Amino acid sequence: MSKGLTGAKPLSLASEESEDMRNVKTIREFGMLWDESEALVSDFSAAWCGPCKKLEPVLKSLEEANPGVVFAKVDVDELTALSRSLRIQYVPTVFLVKRRRLVYRIVGHEIREYLSAHVKELVAE
């Protein structure tokens, strides 16, 4: 088994935020989500980004329709080191991760159908 992103002992996924998109505050928290989530959708965005705000209701709808998927939001201005290490150059960027493997990297906000189809793939099998 690989160490994942952090190599640190993971924290528990149990959280009061489990029903809402998690706002990731630390690199360690992101690493824990990456390492422990069976399926993860991670939205890299910024508070000043208009297209990111347009994507929020799409992600919220997908989150409600896919309870087996963990949804997380990373503010690229708050976690600049993480954003740089993952080569996030444009926002919004959405990562779809299955069993610690990046399956899709999607850039842009006009991706509703594309994103929806690929989130369904994460929970299939």
Keywords:
23% strand; 4 helices; alpha/beta; 5 strands; disordered N terminus; Glutaredoxin; 125 residues; 5-stranded mixed beta sheet; 35% helix
In a few lines, what is going on in this structure?
By secondary structure, the protein is of the alpha/beta class.
Protein architecture, described:
The protein is an alpha/beta fold and 125 residues long. It has a single domain, classed as Glutaredoxin (3-Layer(aba) Sandwich). Helices cover 35% and strands 23% of the residues. The protein has helices at residues 27-36, 50-65, 80-85, 112-123, and strands at 22-24, 39-45, 70-75, 93-98, 101-107. A 5-stranded mixed beta sheet has the order 1-3-2-4-5, with helices on both faces. The chain is globular and about 35 Å long.
Task: Catalogue the unreliable spans.
Answer: 1-18
Beta-strand share of residues = 15-25%
User: Looking at the structure, what is the overall shape?
Assistant: globular
User: From N to C, what is the helix and strand string?
Assistant: EHEHEHEEH
Strand order of the largest sheet: 1-3-2-4-5
Please identify the oligomeric state: single chain
CATH class descriptor = Alpha Beta
| Number of strand segments | 5
Rg from alpha-carbon coordinates: 13 Å
Task: Return the average pLDDT rounded to an integer.
Answer: 85
CATH topology: Glutaredoxin
State the distance separating the first and last CA atoms. 21 Å
Q: Work out the count of structural domains.
A: 1
Report the CATH superfamily. Glutaredoxin
Helix content: 25-40%
The main sheet comes to: 5 strands, mixed
CATH architectural arrangement: 3-Layer(aba) Sandwich
Continuous helix count: 4
